[in-house]
Amino acid sequence: MATAAPRRSERVVLAVLSIGAAVLGLVSLIAGILRLRLYLVNATDGATPLELLTDAPLDGIPSAGEPSIVVGGYSSAHLLVRGLTTGTRALLASGELISIVVAVVVSAAIAVLLLFLARGRAFARPLVAVAQISGATLAVGSLLGQGLTGLGMMSAADELNPLHHDLFTVGFVFDPAPIFIGLVIMGLAFVFRSGSRLQRETEGLV
């Protein structure tokens, strides 16, 4: 059942945005697979990329004038690490894999939503399932992905600290925003369901 059809220019814009969302999902998939390969394939002869928390001070930098650094520190360190244990790499790989799934599902959901809007079907029944699945994937996937990646980072920091004077913080930063966004998207499922029901009830009325 269709709502008022958008103008041709609007359909073109929505179609382009839909294609863009699909391309973004494909790029996320390829980039994620390449990162995943670093955790799984390059275990022996390669190095694993990491960003670990640290509170290392910023000192020993001479200054000939102003402005000069008075005090400071590093909050994180970008590293390439060899010799991590299998368990640590498994945690990092699992978190990355979940992140890939989340990115692909959400990108596909956005592409489908834009296509339905371009066809003037803003309250089509399939959008209820699209909103439920994508919202749940974003909320639960973000929680699991960040959690597993964070545990991997903590494990890596714990392995590195004995050889590097406890330089790294055994912890990670958790971002709750994707979880809340996922819950909001799941809430949109009720909007689509209510809109679809209203369309059915008012069909044929002027």
What does this protein structure show overall?
The chain has 206 residues and is mostly helical. The protein contains four helices and two strands; from the N terminus they run αββααα. The chain has helices at 8-40, 86-118, 126-160, 177-202, and strands at residues 48-53, 76-81. The chain has a two-stranded antiparallel ribbon. The longest helix has 35 residues, at 126-160. The radius of gyration is 24 Å and the shape is elongated. The two termini are 16 Å apart. The mean pLDDT is 81.
The number of helices is 4
Could you tell me the radius of gyration in angstroms? 24 Å
Please mark out the parts with pLDDT under 50 across 5 or more consecutive residues, or reply none: none
The major β-sheet equals: 2 strands, antiparallel
Total number of beta strands:
2
* Overall SS class: mainly alpha
**Arrangement of strands in the largest sheet:** 1-2
Strand content: 5-15%
Helix content: 55-70%
**Cα distance, first to last residue?**
16 Å
Shape: elongated
Would you list the SSEs in sequence order as H and E? HEEHHH
- pLDDT averaged over residues: 81
Name its key features.
mainly alpha, 2 strands
Entry summary:
By secondary structure, the chain is mainly alpha-helical.
